[in-house]
Every structure is written in structure tokens, then in C-alpha cells.
Amino acid sequence: MRFQVLDIVFNPPHPVTGEAVAPSDRLNRVVETAVLAEELGFDSFAVGERHAGEVLSSAPTVILGAVAARTSRILLSTGVTVLSLLDPIRVAEDLATVDQLSRGRLEIVIGKGNEVLQYPLLGLDIDKQYEYLQENYELLRLLLSEEDVSWSGRHRHALEHATTLPRPFAGPFRIWHGSATSRFAVDLAARYGDPIVSANALQPRENYQVLIDRYRERYAAHGHDPAYGFVGSGSGGLFLADTTEEAIEQYRPIYEGQVAAAARRGYGADAVGKAPSFRTVEDAVERGPALVGSPERVAEKILDYHASYRHDLQSVSVNHLIPAAQQEDVLRRFAEEVVPVVRAEVKTDLWSVADARRAAGFTAA
Question: Smallest Cα–Cα separation from 114: which of 196, 48, 61?
Fold first, then answer.
């Protein structure tokens, strides 16, 4: 299995103390975490994107440019590029720039995003989010693979003889599709033979399972090479301690704060994909996707989920409200005590020499 660290760059105040992290500190911590992830042998580092709420990831390509300058081996990614909101011309330009700066260490994940306030903020109709996603994806795919592009669609002006610069480092980089709540994303990925990343963050396992199963069914129906039908999985937060009981007690204020913050926005357990489905941290650990526990228990849980999802990539996120030294300790313990256990049990060709579609500048160790 391959492993990724994802930071969506949430930045709310601490739910208990009210203490806030300065934006400059938070953003620089993202870059330092990426450097640490490379040092610890993670395969990939991803930065999210949002344009509303207490989040600092409105300019993910800027952050990835900073990460590219501080790293030399790790694969860079997005989680997700909210393509429904964006002009494909600018996306092609910005991400190809990151691809060049990193010398071919880029793959991206696209999606519609799950923050409803982004659409009115940017003057877009949320009822057309899937139309935007498909049209923008198809144009982006064309712009990355071809020059002198002429194109017309429904939601943006037509193009004649357009070539975006810079070009990607060594041909078009791979595009994954983020999957959280709808069939649309997995159907789009399957139609074009792209891989998917299941959010696997807030809901019961079976909600994500049905989408993963549908993806594989539709991918095969379209006749694509099964060797490239890769699946990634997120997680509902990562926190490690010597025992699972200790981990639960230490993580409790963070989790309860997340539930309370969702409630303040009017999101209860039934707000699918927007709020935790599990009301207590115990429930999230026992029945949900939260990776909270001893290293042994977390490794066991990833393997248990793999029995259902058969995923190739595991993405993890450490909450920024945990003290910086403890964040580093959690990632270090995960890399040293969890990753080897899982890798011994789960093999994949993703990003290996056998994966001919991998980013041109990256081969997994």
C-alpha cells in the first residue's frame, strides 16, 4: 500500500481554549509537514482547496509551489482541486507550473467540493455543480494533452487555437477523481479510465463501499485496463497514543469540537458528507473511519478497511489543533509503527516501475 499525508488547511480556533493559530504559522506548518512527510518516507503529500469557511487553502497551487521548493522526492497532489469552481485555463497553467517546479512530481485529484458557500461566493449556481465539473474536466484534460486547442461548451466562452503555458513537465499528469457522496464522480472517472480517491472521512463504511463498488463495475464495463483502476481512501483523522484508550481520551476534545462546529452551521448527523455521522469519538473509532488508537489498532483498522475497499493508497490527516511537536510525533509513529505492518500485508503496483502512468518524476521506493 502507498501512503499520503493530506492537509485541507482547516484553521478554526481550538474548541476548548479558543486559541487561534496565526495564518502565517498555519501555512508554514503545512510546508514543514510536507518536508517531514518526505523525510519519513511517505509517498505523497496533498493540499486541499476551499474558498469559504475557516480554511486557508484557497490558493493550493501557491502552497504546493512552496512545497516543491523544499522537497525533492515526494509526490505532490491536491485533495481536491475544486474544478467545478475554476477556469480550466488557469488550472492548466497553475498546475503545470507546479509540475515544472517539482520536475514531474505532480498528480491531482479533482472534485466538486462539499462546501456549499463556495458557489455563491464565486457567482456560480450550485445546482449546476456537476455540469461544471464534467465540462471543466473534459476541457482541462484536453488542454493538458494538446496544444492549439479549439473548443466550445455551455458554461464558458469558446476557445480557438489555445495553448496553455507552461506545458506539463513530461506530458499530462494523472488526474484522480474525489468520491464522497455521489455516483457522478465515480461514473466520470470510470468513463475516462481514471483512478478515484474515496473521502472515507465522515460516514459509515458502507456509504463509501457502494461508490467504490460502482466505480469498479463501471470501469470494467468501459473496457479499461484493470491494472490502472487504482483506488485511494481517506480517513476520519489520525491520532496515535500508546493505548487506544489513551488516544480516545486525548482526541475527544478535538472530535467533539468538530461535531459542535458542524452543528453551529446547522449540520447534524444526517448532513451526508458535511458533518460527522458519528456523534461520539468512541463511535467514530469503533464504527467509523477515524484512525485513532494505538499503532497496532490503527494498522489493524486499515487492513480491515482494505478487506472491504481493496484500496492502493491510504491518505491520513493530523488535526492542526494538536501541538506541533505532537503532530510530528503522530506522523513519525505512524510511519515507523503502522506503515511497515500494512505494507507487509498489502502490495500494489501504484507508483512503482510497473505503473507506466505514474508521475514522470516520481517512483515509489
Answer: 48
3-class state of residue 219 by DSSP:
helix
Residue 238, all three cell numbers: 489520525
DSSP state letters, 140-190: HHHHHH-SSEEE--SSS--EEEE--SSPPBTBPPPEEEEESS-HHHHHHHH
The b-or-e profile of 13-31 (16+ CB within 10 A means b, else e) is eebeeeeebeeeebbebbb
Name the phi and psi angles at 162, rounded to 5: -95, 135
**pLDDT confidence bin for 244, thresholds 50/70/90:** very high
**Whole-number Å distance between alpha carbons of 168 and 148:** 15
The pTM assigned to this predicted structure is 0.97
Q: How far apart are CA 113 and CA 360, in angstroms?
A: 27
Amino acid present at 307: A
How many C-beta atoms lie closer than 10 Å to residue 245's C-beta?
Answer: 11
Secondary structure (3-state) at 74: coil
